[in-house]
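Q: My collaborator sent me two sequences in one message, no labels, and asked for predicted structures for both. Can we handle them in order? The first one she listed is below.
A: Yes, handling them in the order given. First sequence, followed by its structure tokens:
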Amino acid sequence: MDDKCQPILCFLETVAFKDCICQGISIGGDRNIITCIAGGITQAYDRDSPSWIIKETKARLLQEFLGILDRFEERTLRTSACGSV
């Protein structure tokens, strides 16, 4: 299967963030890229990533990337598809 399709399939075939990550790891191919993309799609879709994953990820980022992430979250999480968070 094409590596570009696998992250999308992980997202479509699972119902929870953790399940999507597990599916990405077990699917084969370039697992780290597939899982990263699948997790990103899932988080963008339902915004329900476990808080411990977010906390751990932010702890590993360089300060300059945290600033970029903060600005991105301010712009994108301010409103949802329904008009408010």
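Q: And the one she listed second?
A: Here it is, processed independently of the first:
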Amino acid sequence: MITRGAYLLFFTFALLSILESCHKHKIINTSFYYRKTIYKSDQMEAAVSANFTRKLYVRIMDVNMDDDGISPVPVSPITFKDKLQ
């Protein structure tokens, strides 16, 4: 038979665990994926990348199979009008 003190100890531990888990601060690392065929940075993208993100993933090209289905070939590779920072 479980005593009343054991119940009290269990519920106190459970309550403290729940309350402590609510106060953890998570660090969120935001990143963006650039999926256009011409990379040209504008003011909005520059502001977002400077203030809100540390990573920018850029699509270089899509890859498809040739007509014979043997070799991979690039499809619509990206053209860079601006430099990546």
